[in-house]
Amino acid sequence: MVFEFVGGLPDYDIEWVEPPILRDPSGLPIDVSGASFLQVRLSLAAAHDDAGETTVSVSDLKPDLSGIVEVTQVGDFEGVVTWVLGLTPELDYEVSELESPSRLVIDVKHL
What we know:
The chain has one domain. A hairpin with a 6-residue loop joins strand 3 and strand 4 (29-30). The chain contains no helices and 10 strands. The radius of gyration is 14 Å and the shape is globular. It is mainly β. The strands form 3 sheets. A 5-stranded antiparallel β-sheet has the order 2-5-8-7-6, with no helix packed on it.
């Protein structure tokens, strides 16, 4: 999974989470496919412009991959953008930071 940014990388936190997966800011549960869930929180980030229009072309992906079942944006509120990766099963992953353009890469191990 690759996140690309304008103006440098935001702060980020990546951690395993347990269901229920909650939509931010409503706190309502959201169904994300998978047996394990990796949450990506991007701080001082936005997935919308000043007019409130989304800057993300797709907010829910169901890739045809052996380890990643679903990738869903679950939040874009008060400078925090949150995504959840639904995996099956819990898999090792590596995180890389790339430049030109600024990107955060989450490389999930294949089954």
